[in-house]
Write a structure and sequence with these properties.
Blueprint lengths: L11 H28 L4 H10 L17 H14 L1 H20 L2 H13 L4 E4 L15 E5 L2 E12 L6 E7 L11 E7 L5 E4 L2 E3 L13 E12 L13 H37 L1 E2 L2 E2 L4 H29 L5 H25 L10 H12 L6 H15 L3
Parallel strand pairs: 1-4
Antiparallel strand pairs: 2-3, 3-8, 4-5, 6-7, 7-8, 9-10
The structure holds flavin-adenine dinucleotide.
């Protein structure tokens, strides 16, 4: 019973993966999500299940032990996982971006060393651009790497690392004075390996405690302090050729990340709709089920329509990237529309629940705290509009 968010043209393999993940979400995620989220508990059993299904290697090439699936498959898997619980897709997402970065921009040695371990989920990835003083404005990054003989030495403070503690490789963007005129060519991405956990997890690299959040619990979000971290050239993403190219590499990663956030938004909106449409048929007011009142039925119609539009845009952006084309504008559009619609759909589902929506016993309470994150993560709506308008103005220059 899933009329909404269908995707035409999938292969048998894609359909089979999605069925498996949907069943996993129904049986292993949804029944536990409320308890784990309220306790802010790391979902270790669910992560083990994801590992067993091979989800950490979903997009990693088969030669490195992965399943070699497309961005579209990944996005549709994320949609299913988020329908279960957004935090689960958060655990997969930074890992996926880092695996993508290594696959696209890594040296042969980096691929051989990291990808097989990432495919099994033994090594999981975090992605670090943001700092206490900047998020949208990536050029304002202050953390620095200075050359010291054959190595670099890193100093600075990073903020908001999703999977900051349980990951063991962090793709980290810092300034490197390459002498280039543009600030964007003075940035380098490092693949910093560390032990999972809190405290000093590698010499000079400290993960303080996790940041307390209003939602998106269970998955940890942390700071990262770099105090004289010694990083050989072999840890620069792409080696010597990657020095000064970190900004562009990370933006490439963010483009796939944006499709992922759009997919998450679709998954949450689908779940909110499912909850609302069920409740609207159970709850009676004025002698009729809520769904018998046109005002509520129309809300359901609008919610369903928004889900269809968001899903279509998300699939379009994923397919474009899979074709090898740049998808900055389309990924921006998908992320913008899906996250804004998700917030609206969740809000309407909450209203349909009346007072019960405010009770922690109802799933919609959790979705209400999760949806706002999607308006911010991987670039806020204002930043998406900046990217979209810049792309369109370039295309339609008069
Ligand atoms: C739970 C969580 C997890 C996160 N995980 C990660 C992660 O794993 N890795 C990572 O690197 N980062 C992560 N982030 C950081 C996230 O990417 C940033 O919060 C986001 O990019 C916004 O940056 P900011 O918070 O510094 O807001 P700011 O950049 O300070 O923006 C504040 C407000 O001003 C608006 N604004 C800013 N500039 C402009 C402009 N030029 N025009 C119009 N409006 C503007 C923004 O849209 C926003 O509304 C995470 C954040 C959260 C909350």
């Amino acid at each position: 019973m899933a009329r909404l968010a269908q995707t035409p043209g999938l292969t048998d393999v894609q359909r089979s993966i999605l069925e498996t993940v949907r069943e996993f979400a129904d049986k292993e995620i949804i029944p536990h999500a409320q308890r784990l989220e309220h306790a802010d508990e790391y979902p270790a059993d669910i992560v083990d299940g994801m590992r067993e299904m091979g989800l950490f290697g979903l997009t990693i090439a088969e030669e490195y032990g992965g399943l070699g699936e497309s961005l579209l498959t990944y996005a549709l898997v994320v949609e299913e996982l988020s329908r279960g619980w957004m935090s689960i897709s958060g655990i997969a997402n930074t890992h996926f971006i880092v695996a993508y970065l290594v696959s696209q921009h890594g040296t042969a040695e980096q691929k051989a060393s990291l990808l097989p371990r990432m495919a099994t989920g033994e090594v999981r990835g975090a992605f670090s651009m943001s700092e206490p003083g900047c998020g949208s404005d990536v050029a304002a990054i202050r953390s620095k790497a200075a050359r010291d003989g054959a190595d670099f030495v890193l100093h600075g403070q990073k903020m908001w690392l999703t999977n900051g503690a349980y990951s063991s490789v962090v793709a980290t963007l810092v300034k490197t004075e390459t002498g280039a005129e543009s600030v964007y060519r003075n940035m380098t991405a490092f693949l910093l390996e560390k032990e999972p956990g809190f405290g000093e997890t590698a010499p000079g690299l400290t993960i303080p405690g996790k940041i307390e959040k209003m939602g998106y619990k269970g998955v940890e979000t942390t700071e990262m302090v770099l105090d004289g971290v010694r990083a050989p050239l072999s840890t620069v993403l792409g080696g010597e050729a990657g020095v000064g190219h970190g900004f562009y590499q990370m933006m490439d990663g963010i483009e796939v990340g944006r499709v992922n956030v759009a997919a998450r938004a679709c998954g949450i909106a689908v779940r909110a709709f499912e909850l609302a449409v069920a409740y609207a048929q159970q709850r009676q007011t004025f002698g009729a089920p809520l769904s018998g009142h046109q005002a509520i039925a129309f809300k359901l119609a609008e919610m369903g329509t928004k889900i269809e539009a968001a899903h279509a845009l998300m699939v379009n952006a994923a397919r474009l990237k899979d074709s090898g084309a740049r998808n900055d504008v389309e990924a921006g559009m998908a992320k913008l529309l899906a996250s804004e619609y998700c917030a609206e759909v969740v809000q309407e589902a909450f209203r349909i629940h009346g007072g019960y929506g405010y009770s922690k016993e109802y799933e919609i309470e959790r979705l209400m705290r999760e949806a706002p994150f999607l308006l911010i993560g991987e670039g806020t709506s204002e930043i998406q509009k900046t990217i979209i308008s810049r792309g369109l103005l370039k295309e339609y220059r008069s």
